[in-house]
Design goal:
This protein is α/β, with parallel strands linked by helices. The protein is built from eight helices and five strands; from the N terminus they run ααβααβαβααβαβ. It is globular and about 50 Å long. The relative contact order is 0.13.
Length: about 160
């Protein structure tokens, strides 16, 4: 609900569990267990409405995503342009397109996500992270060094991982 989010981030909702975090402008993590740039976003644009507001107030955000389409969309590109306090964490578990297709059903290919990373880095002044999560033994270990190199070439400045 964009209106509820605006009340929280404007400080109007002092009863929110997030009030102290927002008051001190702590970065929020968006995504991780769900993707804010999924098919519902493409259809309804609720994240876009919230991001417009958060951009207006220059609120720091960390995103986790497996999406690529949003970085090709001019409307969203305008939001990302020049953002210096947003960090996008691109989740990619392998460079192998077949392994990725079988495990990460319905998401952009690893190469499409690396291209999205490149695009984001041309638009934004913020940070970019390769989110190599989960690292799956027998899958990720086959390509992880090349994935890290390609992510660096695409502009990633950090890598996070955890093992499955």
């Amino acid at each position: 609900n964009p209106e509820k989010i605006k009340k929280i981030f404007s400080g109007e909702d002092k009863n929110s569990q997030f009030y102290q975090y927002v008051k001190t402008r702590r970065p929020i993590q968006w995504g991780g267990l769900s993707d804010q740039f999924d098919g519902f976003e493409k259809k309804y644009g609720v994240t876009y409405e919230i991001l417009k507001y958060l951009r207006e107030i220059e609120y720091p955000i960390c995103f986790s995503t497996k999406s690529a389409w949003v970085f090709h969309d001019p409307k969203y590109q305008e939001l990302f342009k020049g953002a210096d306090n947003w960090n996008v964490k691109f989740s990619i578990i392998t460079l192998d397109p077949e392994d990725a297709r079988r495990i990460e059903v319905g998401v952009a290919s690893p190469e499409e996500r690396l291209e999205a990373m490149r695009i984001y880095n041309t638009l934004s002044k913020g940070a970019t992270t390769l989110r190599l999560r989960p690292f799956i033994c027998g899958v990720s270990d086959k390509t992880y060094l090349d994935l890290i190199r390609k992510a660096k070439e695409a502009g990633a400045t950090a890598v996070t991982t955890e093992f499955f």
